[in-house]
Amino acid sequence: MRIVGHGIDLVETSRIARLVDEHGRRFVARCFTEAEAGYASRARQRGRQMEHLAGRFAAKEAILKALGTGWRAGIAWTDAEVLRAPSGQPMVALHGQCRVIADEMGVTEWWISISHTGSLATASAIAVAAD
To answer: CA–CA distance from 16 to each of 35, 71, 87, 120 (Å)?
Structure first.
């Protein structure tokens, strides 16, 4: 195994809350898959929906930094998806152009970590390729 990319991002939870307030479902549907939005929606009962959305947003940014692309080359926000393993561990699923780029890089595995508070969310993503 060898690391072929690493990305990290930090997002203010209030920024995501403002975007949801201003654009509602349009913002959520553009940036998050149904699974991601559903996960965050379930956290709404505990008053943590924006934290979870901000964490996923930061993770998507970190994934693209690990791929070395940023938001270009026809990449959509939903091309990088953050899911949950039964253990609660975050997992990466790539689609569309992100999948193409990761395949070209030889990425076979992702290590991702997300942390959030009421005001900030951070994520780190490491792209790993087989030797």
So the answer is: 18, 18, 26, 10
